[in-house]
Specification:
This protein has one domain. Helix 1 packs across helix 3. The protein has four helices and six strands. It is 27% helix and 36% strand.
């Protein structure tokens, strides 16, 4: 059974509600799933984040997403098998207009992409998240 925590933060609560609505799909389309709420203490207060860890199939492959209460998101997808050894990481702030439905749609598309992934194809993850993440200009 997938246990989904609650949150006092409006943004995280909406994301968790979106995940809860799709929890049956998550449960049946992944090998392993875990969601935890974590508080991080700072000198001037604390922040809340949700850690989402999905194992799309029963090999050494994981999708890990950390979502902070200020809309910061880090996504880490990786696999370490005899046939495949690949890694993809992205972090940025979610646009203000991103809904929990669009987040969950991107989440589902990401873990479904794992099944056809290899080290040459990791760029397939980027288009899934491009319209949701405010990555900003990059230094050359």
């Amino acid at each position: 059974m997938l246990i989904i925590p609650s949150s006092e933060n409006e943004f995280l609560a909406s994301i968790l509600l979106g995940i809860k609505k799709r929890s049956k799909s998550l449960k049946h389309n992944t090998w392993n799933a875990k969601i935890e709420k974590v508080f991080v203490e700072y000198e001037n207060g604390r922040s809340e984040k949700v850690e989402l860890k999905l194992q799309p199939f029963n090999e050494n492959a994981w999708l890990e997403i950390d979502i902070w209460d200020d809309r910061w998101l880090s996504i880490h997808c990786w696999a370490r098998t005899k046939e495949n050894n690949w890694d993809w990481f992205e972090e940025a702030r979610l646009f203000p207009n991103v809904t929990s439905k669009s987040f969950v749609t991107a989440l589902e598309a990401t873990y479904k992409t794992f099944f056809r992934m290899n080290s040459d194809d990791v760029i397939q993850f980027k288009p899934i998240w491009t319209n949701l993440l405010a990555t900003g200009p990059k230094l050359l």
